[in-house]
Every structure is written in structure tokens, then in C-alpha cells.
Amino acid sequence: MINKKVANVSEALIGVQDNMTFMLGGFGLCGIPENSINELVKLNLKGLTCISNNAGVDDFGLGLLLHKKQIKKMISSYVGENDEFERQMLSGELDVELIPQGTLAERCRAAQSGFPAIYTPAGYGTEVAEGKETREFDGKMYVLEHAFKADFAFVKAWKGDAAGNLIFKGTARNFNPAMCGAAKITVAEVEELVPVGTLDPNQIHIPGIFVQRIFQGETYEKRIEQRTVRQRD
Amino acid sequence: MLDKTGIAKRIAKEVKDGYYVNLGIGIPTLVANYVRDDIQVEFQSENGVLGMGPFPFEGEEDADIINAGKQTITTLPGASFFDSAMSFSMIRGQHVHLTILGAMEVAENGDIANWKIPGKMVKGMGGAMDLVASAENIIVAMMHTNKAGESKLLKRCSLPLTGVGCVKKVVTNLAVLEVTDKGFKLLERAPGISVEDIKKATEGTLIVEGDIPEMSL
To answer: At the top level of CATH, which class does the domain B4-207 belong to?
Structure first.
């Protein structure tokens, strides 16, 4: 067993600097690395490039970094429901690259898997494909999309062990697995860090080889963005 | 004329036995409520769930179980969770049979625009570009005209495109139309709506052949 466990979030984030590129897991506010984000806010890093499907909401998740103008560039697929984001984007303060959601996932997975680039049909014939190489395969057109290059990936899992093995819960899995091992250093935070040997190897979603540092998050707010319920009959 | 529920009810009739279906945000989400219960259908949500069920009962919401609209949901027996890359393998790999999504504009050649109004509104494309680039069957659910009363069924889209030549069918508050090589072919009228009404509200080429039946819901 190779021990990946670090004591806390500040140890997990050793080496983060201004102007770095980060990957952050999560879909909306579901499955976001809350503790790592809060620490990045505290460290007050500037000039960051963040690769994340969404940009949080005004007062939670990546919205906290946006609010303090710590982010220079966002690479995302959907940024609605965040007024400050929209304001910074339309005023030109924030550089934004919007890309299709499947392309975002696959550019992470390409980085994780050692592919320099992938061909996807998504975005062909739209402004997303402008300036990019295109190619026909079997009569259909595809766009060449490059693997991301990132300094740190911050992911959040449900359970993990000191070997770095991860298990996710529900739809909080989303972009987290594809980001593991897709950056120079992957930092995994988990709700529950269990003793090595207690996770069933058959049930591991992400093997520890993709993770460099793991810690148990102090608290999880797990805010719900759209609380929808039905009435009991 | 149909309301949003009516559009969803009409589209639900397009969902066939054995289909895996991806529903977009807005009117498409309502479709799940009106699918016949004597057929086997599974709903996929691109954030990573297959076998989506109804909203949870109050007090049973789980922050870790949401749909692509970020709403709390439940899952049905046989459901599965997966990561975003696998989710789009299902979509790009054409394992999902039917995609139902909303639009700001649809052109008579099947182009669709639904993610950006330059200078005004930029929310992003989310999974829409992946869905429209790969889905074999795409149905658009939308109002026939915008809030200013202008047609959303056009000769050419004016807004930035989401996908090219991909829409197969459009269901609006006024009509059901099929996208053909020659333009929008009118298939059905909404209750109380005449062919003339539909002509007036359609900027793109409208093909009317024979008697156009009123849709049954």
C-alpha cells in the first residue's frame, strides 16, 4: 500500500500558486470539492484558470472564488444561475471558454488516459468548432479537441482510503472520476476516510493510482440547488 | 392551442417501448409524466443517472441525487449511476434512442439554436451540442413564436447554432411538424388551430399536403 493520506486540507493544497490551472469536479453544486474550494478562497490565489462543468452559485462553490475575482478564466459547459459570473463575463473581466459537456468530460479523460486529443461530433458547424481541425470519418464530420493540461485536480468522493481508492455516491460522481489523474497532482477529499482493507476491491470506482493526496473533509454543506418534491397522496 | 403540458402530452406519444430517452430542461422534463405506463422506457439524465424516477417526497431529498436541471429526483428499480464521460458515451455512441429538447430557433434544414443570445444571454450549451450531434432522433419542444410574437421556425437560424441539420420533428403549441429536405412538413394541428394560423406563425417553408388532422392527446 502506498500511503496518500494527508492530515488536512492545508496539507493537501501544498504547492498551489497564482496563475495555475485547476480541474474541479461537480455538477452544479452536487459532488463539488467543498473543502478544497473554501481553502482556495482562504489562500486568496489570483489569476486562476478553472476547468469545471459549472461555476457554482453566487455564494457557494466556485462562486466564492469568482466573487473575490480570483479566477481569470473559466472553462465550463453551463454557467446559468450565477449572476456575478454573467456580469463578469459580459463585462469582459472574466475570460470564458464554453464547451460542450461531453467534450469537457472527454478532454479530462484524454488527459487521464494519455491521449493528446480526441475527435467528437459535438459542436461541428457551430462557433465551438471555429479555428479547430475537422475531419470526416464514414461520412460524418468531427472536431479535434485537445486533452486538458492542468496543475491540480480537486475531486470529491463519498468514501476513500489511504491508498487513494475512491467510491462515489449517486450523481455526485459526475466529472470527478474523469478528472482523477488528469492533472499533475490529484487531490481527493472524501466524506469518510475508512481504514485500508475495508473497501471491497470489487466496488472501487477509482483506483488509488490516479490520486496523489487524500483527506477527509471537515464538513460538507451539500447545498441543494433546486429542491423539488412531490406531495404524499 | 396547447399549453406546455399539452406539448409534453403530445410528445409523450412519440416515446416507444424499449426506448432510452434523454429529456432536456423545461417542457421536455414534463414528458416523463405522460408516457404510457404499459411500455418499458428509461430516462437518462446526462449528469449520470439512468432510470430516473419522480421527485422525492418532502423530507426524502438527497443532495447527491439530482437531474441535469439540478432538481432533486429519485431513481426507479433497475437504475444506475455513472460518471460524465460514460454518460456521454451513451449519448455520443447512439445508445440513447430519443432526445427531446427545447430551442430558441429551429431552421427548415434542421439546424437548431438554443444556447446563446450574443451580448444578452450566455448560459452555455451544457450537453445540448453533444446530444444534437449524435442523437438519431431529435424532437424539439417549444412555443411556435417568441415573446415578441416572431416565428421560431425559420428559413435559417439567426442565433449561434447548437447543431446543424439534426432536428427531425418539432412539436409546438400550434402544430406537429416534420423536418424534410423541402422544409417543415405540417403533420398535425393543435386543437382549435387552423392551417392558416400555422402558416402565419411560420417564417420557414411550410409544406401542407392534403387535409391536416387535429392532434389527439
So the answer is: alpha beta
Residues 123-182 of A with CB under 8 A from B: 123-128, 158, 168-178
> Of A175, A144, A131, A110, which Cα lies nearest the Cα of B127?
A175
- pLDDT of B70 higher than 90: yes
Taking CB atoms and an 8 Å limit, are B71 and A226 in contact across chains? Answer: yes
What are the sequence ranges of the domains in chain B?
4-207
* All residues at 6 or more sequence positions from B92 whose CB lies less than 8 Å from its CB, including other chains: A102, A120, A121, A122, B130, B133, B134
Write the ipTM. 0.96
* CA distances, A38 to each of A64, A184, A217, A223 (Å): 8, 21, 11, 14
Identify whether B46 is a catalytic site residue: yes
What residues of A are in contact with residue B124 (Cβ under 8 Å)? 76-80, 98
Is A5:A193 a contact under the CB 8 Å cutoff?
yes
Nearest-CA distance B54 → chain A (Å): 8
Cα of B32 vs its chain's centroid, Å: 12
Looking at the DSSP assignment, which residues form a beta bridge with residue A135?
A142
3-class SS at A1? Answer: coil
Catalytic residue, chosen from B14, B42, B46, B203, is: B46
Q: Would you call B129 and A128 a contact, using CB atoms and an 8 Å cutoff?
A: yes
> Are A169 and B64 in contact (CB < 8 Å)?
yes
Cα–Cα distance list, A84 to A47, A148, B95, B117 (Å): 17, 26, 38, 18
Q: Which three cell numbers stand for residue A193?
A: 476516510
In the structure, what pLDDT confidence band is assigned to residue A208 with cuts at 50, 70 and 90? very high
pLDDT: which is higher, B135 or A145: A145
- Contact yes or no for A226 and B160 at CB 8 A: no
The owner of cell 460538507 is A220
Find chain A residues with C-beta within 8 A of B72's C-beta: 224, 226-229
Please tell me the pTM assigned to this model: 0.96
